[in-house]
Amino acid sequence: MESLSELWDAACTYIKTDGGITSAVFSLWLAPLQPAAFDGEKVTLTIDNEFKYGIVTKKFTELLEQAFFNALAFPVRVEILLVEKEKEEETPVSATASTSADELVINNRANSFENFVVGKSNNYAYAAAKKVAENPGKTYNPLFIYGKSGLGKTHLLKAIENYMKSRNPEASIIYVTSENFTNDIIEHVRFSNNPSEMREKYRHADALLVDDIQFIAGKNSIEEEFFHTFNALTENGKQIVLSSDNPPNEIPKLTERLKNRFEWGLMADIQPPDFEMRMAIIKNKADALSFSIPDAVVEFIAEQVSHNVRQLEGAVKKLQAICVLLDTTPTIEITKDAIKELMNTTQPVSVVREKILEQVSAVMGVSVNNITSDKRDKNIKDARQMAMYIIREMTGMSLEEIGKCFNGKTHSTVKHSIDSVADKMDKDKEYKGLVENIIKNVQEI
User: Model-level pTM?
Assistant: First the structure.
């Protein structure tokens, strides 16, 4: 079961690095799990301790599913089975499940500049990232890479990390998500007798690469700590690379002094890939998996999945899994079934925007015409702000583009509206649930 073992290793690596749990928690609860089977839609894991089975099932199933999604780039269910030690030793996994899993090829190559597909939508960010990796602290500092989820920001950050480590194995190169940075600070403040240890770790790094920096916005103590870390590193000529869904001036609730510092160096954006680049990504991923896909199928996937590199790679992985399990070659019909979930999530932005307006209208009892008008009645204004927030979250439209949809509202008006909704969601769980339900409804239509 070599390939299933590789899949489990990839999931564990994600949990350890990006799962937001400590190594002790991983060792206690998740390390005892054993991979048993994978049928293309469900991963089966086993554990032989009843108490741990109860805790893992209740507390960690969602994290496990996220870890496998990260490894496969398409969603799978995770089933955890309680087994007795004798049965585990005496009853092997069925030959069918074992064979199917063995035949799946899981590609776990390290993220590098060599396996990053470059096109006109990302060549600027790629060139900047490579320049920084070759001359850390000497050119663009900080380097701020922004773009919507799934376009390759994390790949570039990890490519920088891997390149720097290959050039200088003794250097302190830290890649961290903003969530893990936050958890590290909280853990040291609450549980460590020596919080300065954490500061030493980050402030004496040779390079600090922080993924999804937008998530520290509004967390005052975390922003304060990162502010001083940023200053310490730049004053000593150390490299900082940041990624975000949005440019600094469009990150809600981020303090002005951090916005200013993030704009000191170079900002490079990544846009969704065009058709030719999508085809190149599909072919590149298929080659990496030693999976032959006819040109017609490559073109079909490129036409249907248009906004997200991660989804493109996930489509290839899932198509391969299905073809292996069915012992067949990829056709258009098989591909349609394999990527049907992705096809549902790649609707034109204009369609998604109209669905959002309709859902907000129905929930808030305000007509779409009033929501997009200049009327200032409180109920209309509340609905309008909610719609702006959800449109921003679900489509990634710029503040200017959103303003045009609401009778020419200004950049600052849209930003204020989004910030207001975000603040209200932080303070009012019922309101937050209402917004999240609207988003869910739009996704399911």
Answer: 0.56
